[in-house]
Amino acid sequence: MAGIILCFTSWIFSGIGFVIYGFYTNNTLLLFFYGLAYITAVSGYTSFKANIVQYNIDQLVGASADELSAVIYWHSAAVPISFVIFQLIRCAIIGNYIFLITFVSAGLSLSVVLVSHSLFKHKLENVSLIKNPVKLIVRVLCYARKHKYPENRSALTYWEEETPSRLDLGKHKYGGPFTEEEVEDVKTVFRMLPLLISVVGLTTNDEVYHWIMSGNQSIEISYGSCLISTEFGKFFTSVVFFLFYLLIFQPIFKRFIPRMLLRIGVGLVFAVCTMFSKTVIFFLVPPDASSVTPFTTPLLYIPQFFYGVAFVLIIAASLEFTVAQAPVQMRGMMVGMWLASMGVGYLININLKYGFQCTNEFMCTNPFYYAVKSVITLVFFSLFFCLSKRYKFRVRGNEINIHKIVEDHYHRYMTQKDAYEAAPSDTVIIEEETPLIF
């Protein structure tokens, strides 16, 4: 909820910036409010993105693996669906009206979310039984550093009145103050972190330009050329494959769904094909020397198709893998690390352009730039292949806190039911709401 509030605050700052831009000429004040809007928007987006998956899963008490997988895939599909709608509208509207439409739509959407959450939050599970994962990791690492070797017990140990059990001896000798489950949770986190290199490899190939999001309305191009230059093909491909998987493939061909790591590996292969096809296109089709017009050719739909498939395979499967393998108390932290991996890839992508003199502001047309990115993605694929072959999936016998969550849920339900039945017909029962913990 804090992420939505920060995004709404960013929207307010943006509105103030629009007013200043329209009526005043104070550039310092304008940059100040736009800076505040940008900082709060990024903070709100990351906070919302890192917690919404865990929050949705907490609502599905006792849900099956297929239902949880469907939630994750619909969560991943929301991004390309919104971009498809945005790009279709953006290329159809001429002038600066797209900024006003986007601003109003964002404000209405955030308002609907805030109002709906305030009205229905009493029907949602807001009980948090998760401990601080960072504190546990630090404590385990510090204890492991100080106790590298098991300590030998004193010979006077067995002079006690009762002989200690083997379990107690083993805990004093190896376990220290932590349970075996807690130590395995920390080990699982460090085994999972290197596999996030797949997300870095995907976002390194994503093209990030100012033109794709806002555009330059003074440039007059056709509707089709606008869709090509704004990477519409990759978003549309992702939407088609997401809908095909969720509505047709998963319900009918469930047994043929490959393993998560295999899907991620195949997605990296499509990511390599994305950069290789762009390298070939810019070698075969010499771009226009002008740097003020977007480069458009129908051949660009080929790499956009490859990237759309890679997005579906890597983003959804890596998020599903992170949620499935991460310890329950560390899911939020691992989803945050998953988002941080995306940010690392975008940093590599943006800063790599400066070394190749990409003069065109709409799309880098240097074929050597894409050749280098092909090699980088191939290195990421090789590393992921080696790491995934050595990874051992962790299988838990039971979920931590799941019985406690179910017990609290039905206990609260039975208490409310007894209160309603015992109260007179003219008495209003005020339900005690569980406090929302951010």
Count the beta strands: 0
Q: Tell me which CATH architecture of the largest domain applies here.
A: Up-down Bundle
Helix count? 16
The number of domains is 3
* CATH homologous superfamily placement of the largest domain: MFS general substrate transporter like domains
**Highest CATH level, the class of the largest domain:** Mainly Alpha
Beta-strand portion reads under 5%
Mean pLDDT: 77
- The third-level CATH topology of the largest domain is Growth Hormone, Chain: A
What integer value in Å does the Rg equal? Answer: 26 Å
The helix/strand class is: mainly alpha
Distance linking N and C termini: 7 Å
- The helical percent reads 55-70%
User: Can you summarize the main beta sheet?
Assistant: none
Low-confidence stretches: 427-438
Shape: globular
Order of helices and strands: HHHHHHHHHHHHHHHH
GO molecular function: transmembrane transporter activity
Family: Belongs to the major facilitator superfamily. Proton-dependent oligopeptide transporter (POT/PTR) (TC 2.A.17) family.
Protein name: Major facilitator superfamily associated domain-containing protein
Pfam family, one: PTR2
Structure commentary:
It is built from 16 helices and no strands. With 438 residues, it is mostly helical. The N and C termini lie close together (7 Å).
List the helices and strands and how they pair.
Layout: H1 2-23, H2 27-59, H3 65-92, H4 97-120, H5 133-146, H6 166-175, H7 180-192, H8 197-205, H9 210-213, H10 223-229, H11 232-252, H12 260-284, H13 301-325, H14 331-352, H15 367-390, H16 402-422
Helix pairs in contact: 1-2, 1-4, 2-14, 3-10, 3-11, 3-13, 8-12, 8-13, 8-14, 8-15, 11-13, 12-13, 12-15, 13-14
